[in-house]
Amino acid sequence: MVIDSLLDTDLYKFTMMQCVLHQFPAAQVEYKFKCRNEGTDLQAVIGPINEELDHLCALHFRREELDYLRSLRFIKSDFVDFLELFHLKRSAVSVTRAEGSDTDIEIRVRGPWLHTIMFEIPVLAIVCECYYRKFYPDTDFTLGRERLAQKIADVKKHPGLGISEYGTRRRFSKEWQKEVICTMRDQMGLQFTGTSNVYFAMTEGLTPLGTMAHEYLQACQALGPRLRDSQKYAFEMWAKEYRGDLGIALSDVYGIDAFLSDFDMYFCKLFDGARHDSGDPYQWGERIIEHYKKNRCDPRTKTLIFSDMLNIPKTISLYERFNGRIRVGFGIGTNLVNDVGVPALQNVLKLVRCNDQPVAKVSDSPGKSMCEDESYLNYLKSVFNMR
């Protein structure tokens, strides 16, 4: 099966889920799937996807997995106690043919946020692997290994550069992701800084990485006191939960202008840094550095995490631009774990409603925004003075 462990997901699902348990236990949400590759025939794998979901929803956390989570400094004991009883509800997720299309599928996840938040990464990994098994069953990893070897060689030419693996949701397969992770660990030493995948972090002795995702800030649009303050509210509640730990703030739910407006001196000093996930990374980095200076923070004590569709040449270029001026980290996903010579799927499962209200992400990159309510999207843009 594609997923055999509930740890086979990104760390930020656990860090957000813990925050939901303590801060927003009654929140109700809805997620919607989208494949950004037009014309991709996912209807051909609806059957296998549903079979995989049946298996996923029968899984529980194993004792050794719970013990591992309990060993992480930022995971609280009562959260692990909750996870001991946790499983995903099959009735919360549905997979059907998209109306009016011969190729698209519709995946919806509905229910309490606390009980649905763990669906996203496994669902996306399942869709990818079912698709590749169907349409590329004879793919070997010869080309992928050659490309990976070149990437590792290029990174090693820059001894101070460290990269992490962030690719679970869009991996070619679980098998290939494991090979990539183990190869990088064995050949790169300290230049391989970790993985977002909690299962492989546990089994391969790596550092698990992640803090918050877009859905967290989106949900706060419905959970906070008023929309204009929702970003600041999200950061306040994160600080309430983690008390200064896991201090990398996501910057692109409302665009960089709105982020800088809300990320005042208090947040500049409280959070360790920010993560880039859309828009021009060079302009973003320059603006963040200048913002820290204006708010009397030494940029050299802060961290920028770049994670938007990176490849190795772009990563090296960003490292050369910002190294020494501010701390930098790089999370590479698809280009590491789905670069084997076949088209990489660009699938997402995004939050579209919270407490029966529409929510939205307005990206700095065209095509990455997602909202089902056009009037709400326009209202959101006006509230945050977005063009």
Please outline the helices and strands.
Layout: H1 11-23, E1 28-35, H2 46-56, H3 63-71, H4 77-85, E2 93-97, E3 105-112, H5 113-116, H6 120-135, H7 142-156, E4 163-165, H8 174-188, E5 192-195, H9 198-204, H10 214-223, H11 230-242, E6 248-250, H12 256-262, H13 265-270, E7 273-276, H14 281-294, E8 303-306, H15 312-322, E9 327-332, H16 334-337, E10 347-354, E11 357-358, H17 374-383
Parallel strand pairs: 4-5, 4-9, 6-7, 7-8, 8-9
Antiparallel strand pairs: 1-3, 1-10, 2-3, 10-11
Helix pairs in contact: 1-11, 2-6, 3-4, 7-8, 10-11
Label this structure with key terms.
alpha/beta, 387 residues, single chain, nicotinate phosphoribosyltransferase, six-stranded parallel β-sheet, 2 domains
Protein described:
The chain is α/β, with parallel strands linked by helices and 387 residues long. It folds into two domains: 11-137 and 343-360, Alpha-Beta Barrel (nicotinate phosphoribosyltransferase); 142-337, nicotinate phosphoribosyltransferase. Helix content is 45%, strand content 14%. It contains 17 helices and eleven strands. It has helices at 11-23, 46-56, 63-71, 77-85, 113-116, 120-135, 142-156, 174-188, 198-204, 214-223, 230-242, 256-262, 265-270, 281-294, 312-322, 334-337, 374-383; strands at residues 28-35, 93-97, 105-112, 163-165, 192-195, 248-250, 273-276, 303-306, 327-332, 347-354, 357-358. Strands 5-4-9-8-7-6 form a six-stranded parallel sheet. Helix 1 crosses helix 11 and helix 10 crosses helix 11 (230-242). The longest helix has 16 residues, at 120-135. The chain is globular and about 55 Å long. The termini are far apart. 47% of the residues are buried.
